[in-house]
Amino acid sequence: MSTLLERLKGAAKPAQEAKSAPKDSNDTGQSSRAGKVLIGGHFDPAVRSALLSIRVDHPEKTTQALLEEALDLLFERYKKPQAARVR
To answer: At a CB cut-off of 8 Å and minimum separation 6, what does 44 contact?
Structure first.
């Protein structure tokens, strides 16, 4: 049986293999994304490895949940309303 880390690494696809995004980003067919926006960035591969390592230690947390937590900590630091986590 594979570990969570191996499964997570295997799930990541190179950009060339990923499906292209629909023209209308609001037309994803996933209701959980309705009314949401994508916020992204380009990071060193070590950042992804560190994030996966946290997921291995905390399998109950999704990448989405970890990013929401990180953004709310950033908002708190700069005295902005904590709006990332769905409440």
So the answer is: none
Compute CA distances 80 → 34, 41, 63, 69, 84, whole Å: 24, 21, 22, 14, 11
Read off the pLDDT of residues 13-71 as tens digits, 9 standing for 90 and up. 554 444 544 454 445 567 888 999 999 999 999 999 999 999 999 999 999 999 999 99
Counting the structural domains of the chain, the total is: 1
Query: What residue has token string 């997570």?
Result: 8
Look at residue 18 and tell me if it is in a domain: no
| Residue 63: domain span | 49-87
Quick check: is 37 in a domain? Answer: no
Q: What is the pTM of this model?
A: 0.62
Residue 71 has which token pair?
Answer: 């953004």
